[in-house]
Amino acid sequence: MAVSLAARYPLALISVDSAQIYRGLDVGTAKPDKDLQARVPHGLIDVCEPSETFSVADYCAAAKVLIDKAHAEGRIPLLVGGSSFYFATLENGLGALPPADAEFRKKLTHKARVVGWGVLHQELDALDPASAARIEPHDAQRIQRALEINWLTGEPVPRRALGGDIGATMALTKIALAYTDRGALHRILDVRFKTMLDEGLVAEVEGLRGLPGVKKDSVAMRAVGYRQVWRYLDGDIDYSGMCAEAVAATRQLAKRQLTWLRHCGGMVWFSADQPRVSEVVATYAEVKLSPWLNN
Predict the structure, then answer these.
(1) Do 228 and 150 belong together in one domain?
(2) Tally of structural domains, the chain
(3) Angle at CA of residue 240, ends 272 and 248, nearest 5°
(4) Which one has a higher pLDDT value, 259 or 210?
């Protein structure tokens, strides 16, 4: 989808994937191949070694450099990928804020079930109008965190901490492509992992194991698929067990991603199994991009 849009509009593709940043993690991350990257460059792919640690703060700093570069060149950044934590942090910013309070969140969640998040958004507006103005009335995750910060600190949320970074300074269009049929999604994920095995995932992990500094607990090796293959190569599980565990972990990851997307404010949904979905999204994108394209 991203490549199709980049062929039609002046876009700059930036990967939002916590595993594709590592060199050598190709098959198991479904990384765009070299030919595709040569035709349509993707930022933040292959930026560090698998023995290194690349934090979310590192990602945000690098992504913002590429976003600014795209704007300077007259292009629109298109962020593509599956790491919801990376995107959420890039959108909302990092700040020196108090940690989550489990008891407060439990009470707030219970209250939301009774009165709804819209009412809690009104309460936030009374306490912290600036934060409420940046948060949509049904964005449960951000309403909860903003109220929590107000309650724990007795002060409004710092602008940089909650709505800072790109979420506060740029207009964002957020698109979610998702399969509405869970059974169909599971079948696709099963085939996806089998395809990775056919394309040499086990051999890829064998090669990574031989690199200096790459260990079982390396951040890169915690990625879904890689840790299960590593266990297989260690002899902890057999081949069928590796496949079963990897598929189950992939399904769990997809479920978490969908849950996050549902709670992410401002998301526009498209059904991935809809006929001609590419054309539908392209039409929507053109409408959203038209003010910029006409300038």
Answers:
(1) no
(2) 2
(3) 35
(4) 210
